[in-house]
């Protein structure tokens, strides 16, 4: 592949016939030899697609030729080639699975009633004006924040996006309800929905980072309020916004800084945890910290151990 590129974009817009869009998108991407993941729902499209630069450009041009997708904000990044194992184009009830397909209303102008969009520059202005009152609220799965997040961000206890509703209804974050809260996520899509869900549950002043961490990193590099690496859902696994940026994640075995996730070797667990290149090469700590703990417990006090049987 000459120049591998990856594009990331979403559009919230009413789609009366998602299945027709799915067929068109699949044929288009497949004919150009692209791979990645496209989700379509009655509320729009969410895509991460990779391939050779010329093919990706053609895909973007054709996608934008469909009037409802014309405004798509396309985020480009460099791939490594074969960044995705396959092409998957699917129709789903929600673009992002919060488990609340009926709570958001989408018009030609996007999601109704969401948090105020802040471009990276506007975010810094808000921080200049309101200082420590401003709270960052991570809209991703908690694991992703292990290797990078906004300074002093609140990271909800979420394994999947479905866990957000229980989190924001738990009362844990009620002290934030009268504070300026800035939600952020990888490319911005999760916050389009999350900020509505938060406002509907009494959070009064909610903002969302426009273009997500990706655009923020492009704008401010490593000089702003972002610490560490950005978790990404392709072969790269993580990206940094500047040379010499260190992940804030720590190897489960030797504690060295690392952005590298591996899967737990316990077939019933397979949970991702951080382990540095050297420890992986030397076969150290094949199990995730949770499994290490429960095995340790099993040996020390078998009657207390959590068993998976
Ligand atoms: Zn290590
Ligand atoms: Zn495990």
TrEMBL record:
Function of the protein: Catalyzes oxygen-dependent 5-hydroxyuridine (ho5U) modification at position 34 in tRNAs.
UniProt source species: Brevibacterium celere
Matching InterPro entries: Rhodanese-like_dom, Rhodanese-like_dom_sf, Rhodanese_C, TrhO, TRHO_N
Any single Pfam family the record assigns to this protein: Rhodanese_C
Family in the record: Belongs to the TrhO family.
Encoding gene (name): trhO
EC assignment: 1.14.-.-
Protein name as it appears in the record: tRNA uridine(34) hydroxylase
One GO MF term attached to the UniProt entry: oxidoreductase activity, acting on paired donors, with incorporation or reduction of molecular oxygen
Catalytic activity: uridine(34) in tRNA + AH2 + O2 = 5-hydroxyuridine(34) in tRNA + A + H2O
This protein's UniProt keywords: Oxidoreductase, tRNA processing
Domain Rhodanese intervals: 130-225
Gene Ontology biological process terms, A to Z: tRNA modification
């Amino acid at each position: 592949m000459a120049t591998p590129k990856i594009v990331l974009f979403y559009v919230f817009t009413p789609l009366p016939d998602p299945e027709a869009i799915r067929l068109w998108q699949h044929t288009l991407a497949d004919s150009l030899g692209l791979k990645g993941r496209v989700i379509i729902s009655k509320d729009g499209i969410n895509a991460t697609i990779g391939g050779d630069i010329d093919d990706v450009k053609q895909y973007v041009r054709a996608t934008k030729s469909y009037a409802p997708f014309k405004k798509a904000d396309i985020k480009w990044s460099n791939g490594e080639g074969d960044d995705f194992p396959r092409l998957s184009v699917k129709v789903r009830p929600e673009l992002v699975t919060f488990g609340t397909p009926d709570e958001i209303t989408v018009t030609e102008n996007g999601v109704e009633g969401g948090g105020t969009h802040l471009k990276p520059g506007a975010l810094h202005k808000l921080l200049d004006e309101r200082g420590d009152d401003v709270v960052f609220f991570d809209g991703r799965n908690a694991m992703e924040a292990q290797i990078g997040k906004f300074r002093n961000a609140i990271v909800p206890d979420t394994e999947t996006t479905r866990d957000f509703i229980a989190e924001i209804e738990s009362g844990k974050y009620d002290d934030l309800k009268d504070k300026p809260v800035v939600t952020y996520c990888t490319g911005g899509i999760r916050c389009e929905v999350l900020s509505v869900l938060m406002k509907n549950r009494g959070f009064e002043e909610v903002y969302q980072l426009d273009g997500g961490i990706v655009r923020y990193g492009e704008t401010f590099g490593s000089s702003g309020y972002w610490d560490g690496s950005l978790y990404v859902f392709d072969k790269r696994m993580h990206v940094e916004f500047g040379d010499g940026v260190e992940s804030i994640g720590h190897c489960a075995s030797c504690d060295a800084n690392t952005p590298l996730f591996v899967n737990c070797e316990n077939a019933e667990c397979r949970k991702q945890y951080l382990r540095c290149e050297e420890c992986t090469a030397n076969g150290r700590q094949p199990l995730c910290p949770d499994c290490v703990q429960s095995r340790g417990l099993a040996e020390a006090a078998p009657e207390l151990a959590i068993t998976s049987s």
